[in-house]
Amino acid sequence: MLDCFIGLMSGTSLDGADGVLVDFSGRQMRILATASEPFSASFRAELLALNAPSSNELHRAALAGNALAAVYAQVVAGLIRQAGALGVTARQVRAIGAHGQTVRHQPGRTSAEPAGVGYTLQLNAPALLAELTGIDVVADFRSRDVAAGGQGAPLVPAFHQGVFGRAGEAVAVLNLGGISNLSLLPGAGSQLPVRGFDCGPGNALMDAWCLQHTGQPFDAGGAWAKSGRLIPALLASLLDEPYFSLPLPKSTGRDLFSLAWLAEKLRPFAGERAEDIQNTLTELTVRACAAGLGSHGKESTELIVCGGGALNIYLLQRLQTALPGLRLSTSEAHGMAPLQVEAAAFAWLARQMLDRQPGNLPGVTGAAGLRVLGALYPA
Ligand SMILES: Nc1ncnc2c1ncn2[C@@H]1O[C@H](COP(=O)(O)OP(=O)(O)O)[C@@H](O)[C@H]1O
Ligand SMILES: [Mg+2]
Q1: What's the start-to-end Cα distance of the chain, in Å?
Q2: Which residue is closest in CA terms to ligand 1's atom 8?
Q3: 261 pLDDT exceeds 90?
Q4: Ligand 1 center to 248 CA (angstroms)
Q5: Are 179 and 324 in the same domain?
Q6: DSSP run (H or E) holding 201
Q7: Do 146 and 161 belong to one domain?
Q8: Is the CB of 102 inside a 6 Å radius of any atom of ligand 1?
Q9: % of the chain at pLDDT higher than 90
């Protein structure tokens, strides 16, 4: 019998929603259908605006959550249509794991708050999604880990271990979303635990600069960055950010690596060419990831790249230059398209929730222990 779940991911890149329909009944997860829906330019702008304080946010956040659920429902409809060709119907889908849209991420233990912990906030409308699809929805995966004193992120390393982990060989998985995160997977049988953390900016700053100067939402293949030259003084200033040398556990978001952060860093470089700045922002992502791997994942023999940044050929070339001696591949070479990996992880997390199994790794997030993640909205 099939054990079908849908995973929906919309990350900090704000590019849109990616979905997969997977079957967990076999020894290896099987992807039955994939679908994506881009966000409209105006919705993307509204979500970006909601990442920073502004007027009437509660009302606008609620409406944005509803609009997101409508996009999610379109992705689900596309998945169900495709799965129909395989004889799979919506009734066979046990649940949808819907990540939601992170607009604030300020997790972790803090003595400054009465409850002793911070928070992470994903806009979503899981009740509406259950209504629109007729399928059970699991949402709000991160807040239980935060309640237990964790970062609430990254949540994907356990899934990465199941899909990409090897016997006898340590590999690292780099997800290049708006923010970049690394999963460090020791070889099976190793004494080392699985670890993971956010490296820093992934595509978010490159996308913003590209949109502002070319009108394109991202730098396809990194061609524009490639046409520019590195500005060493700017790179040094960008890398002079305490986050990069913080100990683990750590996670970050647009709260820190915001457009305001970038604007401040760029102020002394006002006369520089836009393509040189793009080149330098690309190098920032490369260096942040290489430094993260150098500090915490030296034992890795291969780096598997996923997320939309895996389609940035120039960035991958720069990564290989920064990490000589490391085998570099994309998740595609291991059977999963770069934009499907995180969505599949949320299908897996939904299954963990329904089975009342933990979804977090306390060694990754810093939570006090294993926790069942997410809340169920029955159809
Ligand atoms: N062909 C491409 N060339 C370069 N970058 C790309 C390409 N396709 C997608 N991307 C990048 O990937 C991003 C989307 O990646 P994704 O994994 O969905 O991130 P997130 O999880 O943050 O939404 C886009 O915003 C863009 O920066
Ligand atoms: Mg995305």
Answers
A1: 21
A2: 308
A3: yes
A4: 26
A5: yes
A6: strand 195-201
A7: no
A8: no
A9: 96
pLDDT at 277 over 90: yes
Counting ligand 1 atoms within 8 A of each CB, the residue from 48, 68, 218 with the most, and so the one to mutate, is 218
Q: Is 207 in the pocket of ligand 1 (CB under 6 A)?
A: yes
Same structural domain, 166 and 305: yes
Q: Which ligand is nearest to the CA of 12?
A: 1
How far does CA 150 lie from the centroid of its chain? 17
For residue 17, how far is its CA from the centre of ligand 1 (angstroms)? 11
pLDDT above 80 for 91: yes
Instruction: Residue 166: give the domain boundaries.
Output: 157-334
221 lines ligand 1 (CB under 6 A): yes
Instruction: Look at residue 109 and tell me whether its pLDDT is greater than 90.
Output: no
Looking at the structure of the chain, the number of domains it has is 2
Rounded Cα–Cα distance for residues 188 and 51 (Å): 39
Dihedral of the alpha carbons of 144, 146, 151, 153, in degrees to the nearest 10: 30
| Same domain for 148 and 21 | yes
Instruction: Answer whether residue 188 shows pLDDT above 80.
Output: no
User: Does one domain contain both 325 and 367?
Assistant: no
58-81 pLDDT tens trace: 999 999 999 999 999 999 999 999
The phi-psi region of residue 194 (left if phi > 0; otherwise alpha if psi is between -120 and 50; otherwise beta) is beta
- Residues 145 and 34 placed together within one structural domain of the fold: yes
Share of the chain above pLDDT 70, in %: 100
The answer to whether residues 233 and 344 belong to one domain is no
Shared domain for 16 and 130, answered yes or no, is yes
**Residue 360 pLDDT class (50, 70, 90 cuts):** very high
CATH of the domain at 70: 3.30.420.40
Count helices and strands (H / E) in the chain.
13, 13
Q: Is 218 in the pocket of ligand 1 (CB under 6 A)?
A: yes
pLDDT of residue 291: 97
Distances (CA, A) of 303 to 119, 187, 222, 236, 245: 31, 13, 19, 25, 21
pLDDT in tens, 194-216: 999 999 999 999 999 999 999 99
Work out which ligand 1 atom sits closest to the CA atom of 176.
17
**308 CA distance to ligand 1 centroid (A)?**
3
| Per-residue pLDDT, 354 | 98
